[in-house]
Amino acid sequence: MATSNYYAMHFNACHMQKCGNTHALQSEEPHITQHHLTPSRPQPMASQNQSILFLLPAELRNQIYYELLCSNTPSRKGLHEYSQQRTHAAQPVYPAILSTCQRIHQEAQGLLYSTHTFHAHTSLLTSLPHLVSPLKPIVNASTIAKISRWHLDIRLDTDPQFTEAQATRAFSGAEYLEIHAWQSQFGGCDDSVLSLFKGIRGVKVARVTGCAEAELARWLEESMMMPLEKEEEEQARDVEMGGCATSVGGGCEEKMGGAEVPWLQQSGSGAWNFGNIE
């Protein structure tokens, strides 16, 4: 016990002496890092004269962009033949070239968005379209405005999440529109959902595929490819006839725009009535 007390007193005394000679630490001011902010004004685009690519003529650069971005896409003259194909092979695309520099992006982005067929959103239509994966949609409005070729998968046995006016506004004047109708059970519903597209006009090439009735599909294709000027003439004629283009002894549902539609009375619930067949 005496030995332990001796060591305790000895070391405590030494520790106290050392602590008395210890100088207080000086607090250092924090180092402030200055961050350089990006200027708000857009910088002028560099001429890229040192790049071999931009020493080539514009025609050769466009050919390079075409091979990388849209080598297998149909031309405007080949859209009709393209629409008759039952399946379309995957189109290789290498969009990484658009992120190399600002000048390439400005020169080549139009090829990517104007030649490929983009998938429209099932509810938002031309908002949030995608080319490869729905997980990577396009959100920029100015970029979406460059798209003129569309593909839409529409389910017939569920309630649609858009109106006829929205569909007309979204797809009228498109260069190519393919509507693929499908349902989870064969014969489980009618084709009434497709009535949402009867107001579309001015489409260069339209195609309706899937489980839609053949006569309905052909009529809807012709209707969507009708010029906008002709549609205005038919609307004026309908007004003169009392707001409904009918013939003697015929109801409003029996004729559309003065032309007979034989498939309208195939369903007991009417082709334009929403909901499943009871």
TrEMBL record:
It holds the Pfam family DUF7730. It comes from the Eukaryota. Residues 90-230 form the DUF7730 domain. This is DUF7730 domain-containing protein. PANTHER family: F-BOX DOMAIN-CONTAINING PROTEIN (PTHR42085:SF4). InterPro entries: AN11006-like (IPR038883), DUF7730 (IPR056632).
